Amino acid sequence: MPPPPAWHDALVPVNQPHVDPRRLRGNLLLLLAAALWGFAFVAQKHGAEHMGPFSFSSVRFAMGGLLLVGVIVVLDRVRHRPAAKRRAATRAVLVPGGICGLFLAAAVVAQQAALSYTSVGNAAFITGLYMVLVPVLGAFRGTRISLFTVLGVVLCVPGLYLIAVTEGFTIGRGDALLLAAALLFAIQILIVDHYAPRLSALRFSSAQFLSCAVCAGVAGLFLDAHPYGGMRESVIPLLYGGFISVGIAYTLQVFGQRDALAAHAALIMSMETVFGALGGALLLHENMGLRGYSGAALMILGIVASQLDSLRKPAPADPADPADPAASAAPAAPTGP
Question: Which of 139, 164, 192, 315 has the greatest number of CB atoms lying within 10 Å of its CB?
Fold first, then answer.
């Protein structure tokens, strides 16, 4: 049999890259979650005009937490999980969820209060500092600080200066609250990282969110000027912030992280800051100016740089069945809004 013509070899693909549809689906779910969280800053900004920060945060996290409870019930029935296992998985998350919910409440209330004084763009980028602060704070637990983390800090500090510090070398109340929120989010994520590998991801999250709602709600009765006032005017922001940002986006994150590589997940979710600034520009016509956008660019580079160390780590084994709400997972907590 004669050899094939020379042009035949040119038509045969050599080392054609294979796209894993499961990884692609996971990445797309995470990108959608990041977009939903980013645009939630706009909803929070509108909510801040009518409701106190404690009341708004309490209602939205109660809505999101209850939605997750519904998801858990449905998945339990689909998986035919025995009642004894359901009860055991639920009891296991109560105390860790309560602890994490307390820190989450402090973080989201600080973030919500800040939006009364600063722009959506500033809120998105300064909140995103938590991704750099997590490995820095992790050093106090004995975790090695990589050169990528150092690079992230080096880039983020001047970026933060350009965004938040005025020409008079002062920082506004809103931006100071956002720095506090970023620190609290970082602490909360480290606590989540401690507990999550042993717990059901969705149950743990619902416990956190409902605990957050209770803590913020009780505090709001004493600290908000008009507790739970303005809910009628804030219906749309609450629906978006509760059901979409907390409930749906977090569910997308849990399912997405089961299929995506950890390094890809961290980088994709850092896009939340970009979507937040985009939402402020498109929907609220905000303009951060040359100084602000320069600082934002540095902060994006710093946030991405801080996550690059994960690219050198070996890929994890195939993820657990994403339909199983009891499968252990340790996803990053939504800062988000």
Answer: 192
Reduce the DSSP state of residue 142 to 3 states and report it: coil
> Using an 8 Å Cβ cutoff, are 291 and 161 in contact?
no
Rounded CA gap, 299 and 297, in Å? 5
Higher pLDDT, 40 or 196: 40
Helix or strand (DSSP H, E) at 35? helix 21-48
Q: Which residue, chain included where needed, has tokens 């978006």?
A: 240
CA distances from 233 to 47, 49, 110, 305 (A): 8, 9, 21, 41
Which of 102, 120, 106, 101 minimizes the C-alpha distance to 180? 106
Does residue 5 lie in a domain region? no
Helix or strand or coil: residue 200? strand
Give the span between the Cα atoms of 240 and 263, in whole angstroms: 28
230 in the Ramachandran plot: left (φ > 0), alpha (ψ -120 to 50) or beta? left
Residue whose entry in the numeric block shows the structure tokens 């739970």: 228
**pLDDT 10s digits, 155-193:** 888 888 888 887 667 788 999 999 999 999 999 988 988
Q: How many domains does the chain have?
A: 1
Domain that holds residue 266: 32-312
Quick check: is 18 in a domain?
A: no
Query: What does residue 171 show for φ and ψ, rounded to 5 degrees?
Result: -125, 135
pLDDT tens for 253-302 read 888 887 877 767 777 888 888 899 999 999 999 888 888 889 888 988 88
1, part of any domain: no
**Residue 200 phi, psi dihedral angles, 5° rounding:** -70, 125
